[in-house]
Amino acid sequence: METFIVNELVRELANKHGRTRESLLPILQDLVVQNRYLTSQDMVDVARELDISAADVFGTATFYSFLDTEVRGKYVIRICKTISCAMKGKNDILNTIEDTLKIRVGETTSDKKFTLLETNCIGWCHKAPAMLINDTPYIDLTTERVTEILRGYMKK
Amino acid sequence: MKEKYIRRVDLIFEKVNCREIMEKIMGMEPDAICQEVLDSDLKGRGGAGFPTGMKWRFASKEKDPVKYIVCNADEGEPGTFKDRQILDEVPGKVFCGMAVAARAVGSKSGYLYLRGEYRFLIPKLKTALDEFHRIADEFNLNFRIQIRLGSGAYICGEESALFESIEGKRGEPRNKPPYPTSEGLFNRPTAINNVETLVHSVMIMKYGAARFKELGTKDSRGSKVFSISGDTPKPGIYELELGMSVYEFVEEFGDGDTKAVQVGGAAGFCVPRKRFEETIIGFEGVPTGGSMKLFNSTRSMYNVLHNYLDFFTEESCGQCTPCRVGCQQLLMGIEAVKRGEKNSRYLEELLKLAKTMKIASKCGLGQSVGNAFGSIVENFREEIIY
Amino acid sequence: MINLSVNGLLVKVPEGTTILDAAKKLNFRIPTLCNHDDLCVAGNCRVCVVESLGAKTLLAACATPVNEGMQILTNSLKVRAARKHIIELLLSEHRADCTKCYKNGKCELQDLANEFSVGDHILLDLVDHKSFTIDMFSPSIQKDDSKCIRCQRCVRTCEQLQGVNALTVAYKGNKQKISTFAELSMGEVICTNCGQCVNRCPTGALVERSYLDEVWDAILDPEKHVVVQTAPAVRVGLGEELGLNPGNRVTGKMVSALKRLGFDSVLDTDFTADLTIMEEGTELLTRLKSVIKDKDQSVRLPMTTSCSPGWVKFIEHTYPEYLRHVSTCKSPQQMFGALAKTYYAQVRGLDPKNVVSVSIMPCTAKKYEAERPEMRSSGYKDVDIVLTTRELARMIKQAGVDFNKLKADQYDSIMGVSTGAGVIFGATGGVMEAALRTAYEIVTGKEVPFKDLNITPVRGMEGVRMANVKIEGCKEEWNFLEGVELKCAVAHGLVNARKLMDGVKNGEVDVHFIEIMACPGGCLGGGGQPIPTNDEIRRKRAEAIYEEDMSLEYRKSHENPEIIAIYKNFLGEPLGHKSHELLHTHYTERERY
Known about the structure:
The complex is a heterotrimer. Chain A is α+β, with helices and mostly antiparallel strands. Chain A has helices at residues 8-17, 24-35, 40-50, 54-63, 83-87, 90-101, 143-155; strands at 75-80, 114-119, 131-133, 136-138. Chain A folds into 2 domains: 8-63, no CATH class; 75-155, Glutaredoxin (3-Layer(aba) Sandwich). In chain A, 47% of the residues lie in helices and 12% in strands. In chain A, α6 packs parallel to α7. The N and C termini of chain A lie far apart (45 Å). Chain B has helices spanning 18-26, 30-40, 52-61, 82-89, 91-105, 122-138, 159-166, 195-207, 209-213, 246-253, 301-315, 321-339, 346-360, 364-379, 381-385; strands at 68-73, 109-114, 144-149, 190-194, 223-230, 236-241, 258-263, 269-272, 291-296. In chain B, α2 (30-40) runs antiparallel to α3 (52-61). Chain A binds chain B through residues 20-26, 28-29, 32, 59-60, 63-67, 81-84, 86-87, 119-128, 132, 135-137, and chain B through 75-81, 83-84, 115-120, 148-154, 165-171, 227-231, 235-237, 262, 266, 293, 299, 303-304, 307-308, 311, 314-315, 317.
């Protein structure tokens, strides 16, 4: 007699990946690919599909840095802050992005288009500084290149 | 490359016909494969350095009919980017290596756990995987591989945390024993290997153990792929013979002003200039998963240490006390000393704490924080304090 | 068998034994923190690390099985240095508020720090650098993150012991914390308020919401007439808080102490337990009649008990479609509350608005139950304040009452007399047994065919128990039950409740009557009972309950003279109009999280 509105996307993903505990991460990952973050309702719906507790879904999601449970914009920028990138001018890149988008690290633009975050080593140390925008890496960054890249996204 | 100091090798990225390898392994007894790899003295290339042949033999001796082969592609150690290159250039060899392991161990199912930051490789990997499955079918090898993604957690590179992640849980390392070869993924016997290790096993199948043993030293046989970055005129990925000294390495890759080399990433050791000659890069000296970072005299080792401690503080899974709290204490401790809030003698307390973390932490992460901490504080004390 | 040495002494143990247990065999106690007898091994606090000669790292004694030839040192220099460090680390992320803390004197972290003389604050204080919240939004449980040492006992309890999963470990690294879904307050999620987490928290991070001061205020207010009721399980647990061993019955002393504290009337929840049996027994028989004789499709079987508020909240969240199966009877606490401000006030000539109704419970969920909006049948809040057994002990100490020297005293009337059937409510299986003692006699006119009325098939500590009672020799009006095997099931611990309900859902479990207690052991293992708790302690408390049952004059609820009086003078008959007004309730469907 449970009256709830079926979350179509969650149902589809559960059909695709399965309904065992093993399916949890692939489902959450695909939800993030779609929406860039997980809402509380998403997590409750996933919990229902997999017949596990909502707290469990929340606890698992929050463990992983890329499974955001806070509101994120359409394009999530993750700048690497680990030693190689730090040594090669990541701060300048960060400042440029902050100035261009008018947000600080951790914030999202008011039009919900961009979120700026820092992340740990993404595996491009020889081409530092580097960043990810959603799943795409951008390497050999300079302040000019970064501005260009952002402009490209802003046009989208 | 000055051949006098360092021998460059080209085995990992050499193109290989997977069918050739399949034919060979399907014609061998599983234990013969274990023996060949054991004879080669191949040790894990992810950083831990466990003899691969021994790992496979342990797993193969287990009676459980369900066993798993897992490829650890969660390369997250700062300064390590060689697995990305391997997966990008020769993904077929990685899957082929998993097949060698599957045949040796007796497994029908494999997983490649790829870190989320490398998601862009998926299309290429999927294509290579489809090709691999076709070849496996051709040779009647009943072995299927699935790709699973990580989502931004360095600790998932730890083998048992990786299993937890595939199982859909928080990536928290488990108690050991039991070890993965007896109870690993889904509590079944599992052989988990680094990307590079699996590719080495393919080359061992192709050229034999003896050829592999020609390279390297008694304790560090073979070649290794290094990812080199920092203050160097030639950053990048290089496959080199193991066993060189840090001095030789710096002669080749330094910018003329190298004051320290961090071998093994944040979890590794910082080798100061005065120890370059006596330190061997290999399992008998400072082992590494491949990360080599050079720092010249313009770099503040305080910043370097702070960066590493910040990294660990965030990436620790948080389960066990020594690591969760210890990392924070070390980080805030050096900040307090720098600000003058704590006397420089406080560093001795922190060094003792780092020693405790090394022997009391639940997993390799906590146990390794003390490596960088100890080696940087002891060799660059002035920079930490002032 | 494995041979090993611990601190130079040899011992032989079966394979699979942990170092911790091997050391115990040699009478060496290795200190632990995240370990708990009731829960699976975690191995994360690292307090129990020991040295094994030849090993590179120290080993967690609780999580490491022994190997042949191991040489373990539990108190070497290396171990002592590491252990001290670990305690220091824990203290550095713990807001030590000892003089005001509810767990002062009963805190495992405090004990450890004391044992190893740690506390010089060599390391930095991390508490100030973090934001922490004290969650006081649940009426039952208070969660203080600043005292949490992340042993995860609460999470394991909620997951493995109770199967509720209201708590989880969230985030990682320095942000790691114990949390609920979406970091909501405990009062906003599926938490059933059972308090098992409170029983197992080593520090003051999880404690019950305490209302001691409100009770003192009421007692010391000359205008107020303060009435107190005491639950069955309290009388077999209270002694543990006051220096006695588990399993001591302190009923008489407890009543005496309560009078000395200044309560105007000391009455007994066991009385309303008897009343519950009258109402619920009749309800069961009515349902049986509707289903078996009248074939009424709208009536539901199996019927479940409703006296455990943890169970009630649990079913509201997880099996809301089965709410019509739950007995409409209130719990004994709430029946008492409704009567205190009506029947009792009337008979005593008191203005109900001056009556303050306090209850002493082995339970934390009862605090939530008293706040439920529907619990106002008297026209006022039926139960004003609920205290746990632990809080009562604190009051006794605060008042300077020398408990052990007290002489036994008697409950007051008109709601103070009770039967053995009432007192066994405190043990798992007790409600079932009490109901059977009465229902059987209503139907057949004869006593239940068990020696001394002890229905042993429903007793014991297994998680789920089934028992059948054949009904023979029915009275005329109950002849549709002739020869019927009355099928009963008992479960305690919510993880077992879940098993049972899943069985009902898929048809595997086909019974007439189910008793469910949220807490392992039943109320005697409740969230408000003395800490520590383990199997042995709960067993001893259960023995005491059944001893008390055997010692009482009346053993069946319907024989209680005060019960006969209340029906004659006030309620009329079970399930009558007055009963429905005051003693019955309804339930609410709740969210899944």
